[in-house]
Amino acid sequence: MPLDESRHHHRAGATGTSRRVATWLAVAYGVGVVAVGAWGSPVDAAAGPTLDRLVAAAHRAGVPDRFGYGTIESLANVAFFVPLGLLVVLLAGPRWWWAGAAAGLVVSAGIETTQALFLPERTASLDDVVANGLGALLGAVAGVLALRLTARRRRLRPPVLGDA
Known about the structure:
The protein is an all-alpha fold and 164 residues long. It contains six helices and no strands. 72% of the residues lie in helices and 0% in strands. The termini are close together.
C-alpha cells in the first residue's frame, strides 16, 4: 500500500458524490428549519386535536399518564434535529461530530430567541433547545457510524479492473 493511501486507510470520509448530495439536502433542510422556526403560529396547532385523541387512547390502553403531548412534542424536537447533526458530519467528516451537536444547540437557541422576541404566538423554551441539541447529537453519532460503515465496505470491496 503506498504511503499516501495508508495514511488515509482508517479515515472514514464521505465521497465527493455523497458530499454533493449532503450539500443539497442541507440546503433543503435549512430552508425547512427556518420555515418551521419562524412560522407565526405553532406548527403543530392543526395536529393538536388528533394528538390529544391519540394520547387519550394510549392512556386507556395502559400507557402511563406521564406520556402526553409534552413527550410527543419533545420527541418530535429530537427527531427534527437529527438530520442537522448527520449532515454536518457528512459534510465535515467524523472528527467534527461535536460540531454537529453544537450546530443543533446554536440553531435551536437562535430559533427560540427569535420566537421569544418576535413571534408572540410561539413559546420559546430551554427544553426545546436541549431536545434539539440531543437530536443533533444523535444525528452526528449516526453520521459517524454511517461513514465508518461505508469506509469499511469500501476497504473490504474487491478491487475493480482499472482501479489503481
